[in-house]
Amino acid sequence: MADTDKLHQFLGKMVxxxxxxxxxxxxxxxxxxxxxxxxxDKGPMTSEELAKATGxxxxxxxxxxxxxxxxxxxxxxxxxxxxxxPEQAMVFADPDSPVAMAGAFDVIAAAWRDEPKIxxxxxxxxxxxxxxxxxxxxxxxxxxxxxGYKANLVSNWLPALDGVVQKLEAGGIVADVGCGHGAxxxxxxxxxxxxxxxxFDYHDASIERAREAAKDAGLGKRVSFExxxxxxxxxxxxxxxxxxxxxxxxxxxxxxxHVRETLKPDGVWMIVEPFANxxxxxxxxxxxxxxxxxxxxxxxxxxLSQEVGLGLGAxxxxxxxxxxxxxxxxxxxxxxxxxxxxxxxxxxx
Length: 349
Description:
The protein has helices spanning 4-32, 35-42, 47-54, 58-71, 86-92, 104-113, 115-124, 136-157, 164-170, 183-191, 204-217, 252-262, 286-304, 318-327; strands spanning 75-76, 82-83, 173-177, 196-201, 223-227, 237-243, 263-274, 332-338, 342-348. It has 2 domains: 4-92, Orthogonal Bundle (Arc Repressor Mutant, subunit A), CATH 1.10.10.10; 145-348, Rossmann fold (3-Layer(aba) Sandwich). By secondary structure, it is an alpha/beta fold. The longest helix is centred in the first third of the chain and has 29 residues, at 4-32. Strand 3 (173-177), helix 10 (183-191) and strand 4 (196-201) form a beta-alpha-beta unit.
């Protein structure tokens, strides 16, 4: 027999979750049409003023503003004006903010678009490769992770690795494996003008986009992007970086062994992975919920589509990652630092 109070509590949770799910597409609309940005730039506005400022239709904008106010994503003054708090503006209106999150909704959109493929994979057991997803996944992944990289990579993560910053300041050569659109590569290249950087990814469309971004940034010949798999990229490096991608690989141990072969004798491997504790019970929290969902729809299918198909998943945790890395031939492994969203791990031969 169901407990009435518990049932009502659970129904309340369901209404909250359904409202969030329904609003995800509206966040994308606000982002793409510049509605959030206009609110952030111009201050309190009526629906008529916002529509005029963005070249949109007032009746649609009025309903959109109502939904955002009900979600707590914009503020309503009780009469006719809507606005963003400084905190809301950091999340939705400033693409350079360390907590910009609008891009994450492109990732969510990709999950909905690709649901039929994943549903079929549940039955067949086959994988779904990264390249088989809707393009909004690639765009959203870059935007979502870039804010965290900009906030932490140069200021916190690289300094947490023993001696790496000093080496990059003097020169050195860096491989960014699984670079996607190259956000992490370009952030490092801009910070260390004497070093050289090569981004590798098997996804040709991502490499094409990364090359365009490097050209736009004016970084010249110090930065290049090449199509290559994690077990096949060439060269010898002072630093090899894997940003949020090791768990996506079918054979992460094989990838680790290849990293060891491509490191110089005193080289370092930096592995950035989604934050996770080592047990399921410890990961039953909002961050774990987000990452398990992404892992089910994106990361685990990607791994199962490749050779070996280990299927680490986005919540592998430090102990499991240590096992993979040490099996690949590394003898030193430690957690260098962390954020609420990432583990930053250092491995040395």
